[in-house]
Amino acid sequence: MSGLVVGYGQPNREDVEAMFEKIGHRGPALSGLCQRRRAVLAQNYAEGDLARDGECEELPVAAPYGDGMRICYDGQMGNWAKLAAEHSVADGPFREERLLLQLYRKHGSDMLRYLGDTIFAFVISDGEKLFAARDLLGIKTLFYGRENGTLYLASELKSLRAVTHDIREFPEGHFMDADGKLTRFAELPGSPEVMDVELPQIVEDVRDIIERSVRNRVDFVRPTAALLSGGMDSSVISYLSSELYKEQFGEEARLKTFVMGVGESSDIRHARTMAEHIGSDHHELIVDLRNILDALPEVIYCLESFDPSLVRSSVSNYLISKRASEEGVEVLLSGEGGDEIFCGYTYLKDFPPEQLTAKQIECLGYLHSNASLRLDRMNQCNSIRVVTPLISGELLDYALRIPPQYKQKPEGDGKIEKWIFRKAYEQVLPLSIVWRGKQEFSQGSGSADILPRYFEDAIDDQQYAEARERHPLIRSKEEFYYFRIFTEHFGADRAVETVGQWISL
Which class for 271: exposed (0-12), middle (13-18), buried (19 or more C-beta within 10 A)? Predict the structure, then answer.
């Protein structure tokens, strides 16, 4: 993970430097800024991004063939080896950036058809031309705005706020040219064809795809640990990563795992079970209400959202990521994406099987302005790179075609969410983990209960009613509190429009 800032048109270098300073946390290890004709481009990297020996002398990374092209990039590529072999790109420092520049040189905007297994936000420019793009799901964040004839792009909203009030989210699955024109290059399928495959084969395929994704993304070159909440997603990633860790460093090697909870929470207990099962070097962070309240202003500033569900889960993620950073961790492995891939959200149980895939695709559409922010921001603000093997183009394409009754399996009067995912790993994980009911991160850690109750008493009724009259989008006293912090930093105008509100509180 890294950060980027670009000014194109008639940029003032000092303005771009001011923008760049706002995201110093995204890349304290290495940074660079260059000015070429109509463009000023800046890029930084955290230690966890620098996974290959040796570094280039120029940043942003320059194309090796002397055409003046530079790339500002934030992303994670699952199929690098295959693409590199096809396009004669050698391994080494900034290999993904060099591959993307090669793809652009050969294919122009058609390069994006090669990036189905990549999450990305990038800008390529030689000072005259400009090409910017964001991945299909919007997992990597990107914003843009205009001021005095100049187009500005940045990884975070706070950078743009330093130079303009014209703040817009760069739409997922789109690219932008030098004229500022946005063009959609990819979209989720309307109604994917359900596969006609026997259950044992689906189980085997799911395991194979996930293990391949882990091996393609996890290398342990930098100090690495796993987030382990004791839920299904984090447990599978921790299990597979621990096996890979022992394969590389010996059977006695112990991968570090981290969990956070409010008191003796459900996450704390289940994570202990899982940590014992895989023999990890396990770390627990147990907090109370005061710790959470103290962290909220910083969390909301870094997160750039006021959605209650997202803030609650993000404060947990922020605190545990901060602890991991203090322990010397530079890369965190996350199970993020499992709920979207395998229909894990409880509300999806309300829909009949014939509607499930459509609702799943709708759920995926929320990622770009909601859950993806937690994934990006709560680790980046602590200068940690996060790796998410379940967010895989191959896995998503396959999962969308799994019969609905295997994703949410009817049982008695209810349904078991993520059933096929559980089935795939029931032989290798503790059954108490495999069949643990779905809990959002904030529920398992304990913050989902404690925060709404606190703000219901702490916020004055009249003050809340007046705020709702001015801003009808506010849905609770808790959200009102977060909204106030957000608007203090980013204003109550265009910035508010970038915030994605989850379907429930």
Answer: buried
- In angstroms, the CA 154 to CA 60 distance is 14
**Cis peptide bond prior to 60, omega within 30° of 0:** yes
Is the residue at 474 inside a domain?
no
pLDDT tens-place string over residues 133-155: 999 999 999 999 999 999 999 99
Domain termination site, one of 124, 152, 184: 184
Q: Which domain holds residue 254?
A: 202-290+313-451
The neighbour count for residue 375, using CB atoms within 10 Å, is 23
Which CATH number fits the domain that encloses residue 342? Answer: 3.40.50.620
The total number of residues shown for the chain amounts to: 505
Amino acid at 111: M
Same domain, 180 and 58: yes
Q: Which residues of the chain have pLDDT under 50?
A: 439, 441-444
How far is it, in rounded angstroms, from Cα 48 to Cα 96? 14
Same domain, yes or no: 97 and 241: no
- Which amino acid type is present at position 448? A
Structural domains of the chain, count: 2
Question: What does the block give as tokens for 495?
Answer: 């910035």
Q: What is the pLDDT of residue 221?
A: 93
In this structure, the number of other CB atoms found within 10 A of the CB of residue 114 comes to 18
Residues forming a β-bridge with 150: 147
Place of tokens 């925060």: 451
Q: Which of 184, 218, 244 is at the close of a domain?
A: 184
In contact, 101 and 69? CB cutoff 8 Å: yes
The domain that holds 178 is classified in CATH as 3.60.20.10
Task: Give the C-alpha separation, 341 to 391, whole Å.
Answer: 8
Do 330 and 1 meet the contact criterion of CB atoms below 8 Å apart? no
Which strand ranges, in their side-by-side order, compose the sheet holding 130-134? 61-62, 70-77, 118-125, 130-134, 174-176, 182-184
Please state whether the predicted TM-score (pTM) of the whole model is above 0.85. yes
C-alpha of 397 from chain center: 18
Q: What pLDDT does 442 receive? A: 45
Q: Is 281 helix (H, G, I), strand (E, B) or coil?
A: strand
